[in-house]
Amino acid sequence: MTASSVRFLRRAVALLLAGLAVAPAFAQDAATLRIGFQKYGTLTILKALGTLDKALAAQGIAVKWTEFPAGPQLLEGLNVGSIDFGTVGEAPPIFAQAAGAPLVYVGNEPPAPDSEAILVPKDSPVRSVADLKGRKVALNKGSNVHYLLVKLLEQAGVAYRDVNVAYLTPADARAAFERGAVDAWVIWDPFQAAAELQLGARVLADGKGVVNNYQFFLASRAYADRHPQVIRTVLEEIRKGDLWARENPAQAVDLLQPVLGLERPIVELAARRLAYGVQPVTREVLAHQQDIADAFHALKLIPRKLDVSQAAPAGLR
């Protein structure tokens, strides 16, 4: 065999092996929808119902569910390609898009402004948002509550830089809150409800009249473009699950309680503040997201100015 023949054979084998390595990945992509969820919200109810898994199984598609502690971590998973679809609050998509995540908004729940709040200990001397000046406030960086704090401080005439913001996960923030290491905690349900009922935490201010606190459903742009029918099926099953939960609140709590591992009164309080009724993303909703992006850029919380419309569904771009 000549040297050129040997080189040709080696290239052919290399290409064949590359093809064998790539093929299973594409097959898995087509046959499995990887969903990121948090231990709360309408996707958690849908997972417990099992109706989405059945609907997609009828199309030959399996569902792989992966739990994340918060929205920023979930969208990091989407950015690196470990999930295809997930749900988060308002702020995480802004940070993720700023980091170059190839995401697309595919739907949202109605506003739920009272399901996030600034909490203070029951005996705290802090009586207003203005009293937070110079104090230490805990929150999960890049979560929906990050924007809540920005807007509430703005409304109270306090500069963001005049508050000592401690970036902590919900678990670490609760521990810091309990031992008095922080003066306030900006948090969402069910952590909010748990702190209210277990610790007697006082709501200093929530999102009513300040933010919308949408729950967004997002997909990777590549997956949404390749599998629009799967995305339609997911949104339809979310719609059905929302309708069921709205009409059967006690049963919805029954589903959520073992997942959350919290006392029933806590789950009931949090569930009452959930918003049900998934709908397509509109230009008005994306305009609100643009306001958030602009606010974060002005505070240098994201490195560049964003055009949120670049993450809009194909029909709105």
From TrEMBL:
<dbReference type="GO" id="GO:0042597">
    <property type="term" value="C:periplasmic space"/>
</dbReference>
<dbReference type="GO" id="GO:0042626">
    <property type="term" value="F:ATPase-coupled transmembrane transporter activity"/>
</dbReference>
<dbReference type="InterPro" id="IPR001638">
    <property type="entry name" value="Solute-binding_3/MltF_N"/>
</dbReference>
<keyword id="KW-0813">Transport</keyword>
<feature type="domain" description="Solute-binding protein family 3/N-terminal">
    <location>
        <begin position="32"/>
        <end position="263"/>
    </location>
</feature>
<comment type="function">
    <text>Part of a binding-protein-dependent transport system for aliphatic sulfonates. Putative binding protein.</text>
</comment>
<feature type="signal peptide">
    <location>
        <begin position="1"/>
        <end position="27"/>
    </location>
</feature>
<dbReference type="GO" id="GO:0016020">
    <property type="term" value="C:membrane"/>
</dbReference>
<dbReference type="InterPro" id="IPR010067">
    <property type="entry name" value="ABC_SsuA_sub-bd"/>
</dbReference>
<comment type="similarity">
    <text>Belongs to the bacterial solute-binding protein SsuA/TauA family.</text>
</comment>
<protein>
    <recommendedName>
        <fullName>Putative aliphatic sulfonates-binding protein</fullName>
    </recommendedName>
</protein>
<dbReference type="Pfam" id="PF09084">
    <property type="entry name" value="NMT1"/>
</dbReference>
<keyword id="KW-0732">Signal</keyword>
<dbReference type="InterPro" id="IPR015168">
    <property type="entry name" value="SsuA/THI5"/>
</dbReference>
